[in-house]
Give the backbone structure.
Amino acid sequence: MAAEFTGIILVVEDDPLVLLSATDILEEAGYRVLQASDADEAIELLEAHPDIRIVFTDIEMPGSMDGMKLAACVRDRWPPVEIIITSGRVPSRDVALPARGLFLPKPYRPNELTDRIRTFI
C-alpha cells in the first residue's frame, strides 16, 4: 500500500521513545516520515515540506500549543493535510476532532496505526 502513497507523514510526539516507535512502524510499512517533538517544530516542517500529506500528533505536548491546537492550525493553513490525533490520557469522547480527523488511543498496535494511515490513501 505504501508504494501508492508518495507524500510524507509527519509524526509529532514529545516522548522520544514513542516518537521513535511510531516512526519505525511507519518506515517499516514503507512510508516516508518526518519527526517533530512539538507543535512549533511541526509548523516549521509543514512550511518547509509541501509534500506532507498526513500529520500524526499526540495531544499532550509542551510548547506554544498542544496537539489539538496544532490540528486546528493544520486544518486552517493546510486543508488537504489529513490528521490523526492520539492520546493515552484523553478519552476519545473528549476529543473534538477537526474535519476528517481520526483519533487513535494509546497504546496502539502497529497495525492499528498503519490501518488509520491507509484510511487516507
